[in-house]
Amino acid sequence: GQSLEQPSEVTAVEGAIVQINCTYQTSGFYGLSWYQQHDGGAPTFLSYNALDGLEETGRFSSFLSRSDSYGYLLLQELQMKDSASYFCAVRDEDDYKLSFGAGTTVTVRA
Amino acid sequence: DSGVTQTPKHLITATGQRVTLRCSPRSGDLSVYWYQQSLDQGLQFLIQYYNGEERAKGNILERFSAQQFPDLHSELNLSSLELGDSALYFCASSPKGTGNSPLHFGNGTRLTVT
Prior knowledge:
The structure holds two protein chains of two kinds. Helix content of chain A is 0%, strand content 58%. Chain A has no helices and eleven strands. The termini of chain A are far apart. The N and C termini of chain B lie far apart (31 Å). In chain B, 39% of the residues are buried. In chain B, strands 2, 4, 5, 6, 9, 10 and 11 form a seven-stranded mixed β-sheet that branches. Chain B has a four-stranded antiparallel β-sheet with strand order 1-3-8-7, with no helix packed on it. At the A-B interface, strand 5 and strand 10 of A face strand 6, strand 9 and strand 10 of B.
């Protein structure tokens, strides 16, 4: 099976930088994904890391260290619209089901 | 708009009843996933289908069942409903269902059991 751990809540001000860490345990590793979900809405895909290193997409970046079973999502130049829940996710050893962490609620204050 | 359609958007029913949730995947996607999200909780994986066949199963209750039809739409059947089944039920689809295929989620069905 899989288990993922991420902080439950993070609060920051507009313009700040937030890092959401995710540690995982899985029998087979097929990459770490990140999803964003605004209150009650559909989760949307943000990024995917299969190899070690940093992937940058605009204000958001995602990092992976396979040797440490660890990754993070970096949100830069925070905006009010970034207030949402962020989930890390990994696939199982058969590369099928996608399991999600419990989510990190990011609150951006003016 | 993700291209994934879920119906109905809202469903209110009584304990002991049975309901069917429907999902149409994005055009061209062969894999469908079902997730349950209770209030302020994470996304709990229920089941995955690929091209009509069950591929992976999570902690899905025996009272719950699902299937994917030849036209690739999927239905999730929930029976003998209990208060604790009240949740948001999301369907998601992806082209292959493996690797780095991102999941595209529908807007969910909000089920309230009274």
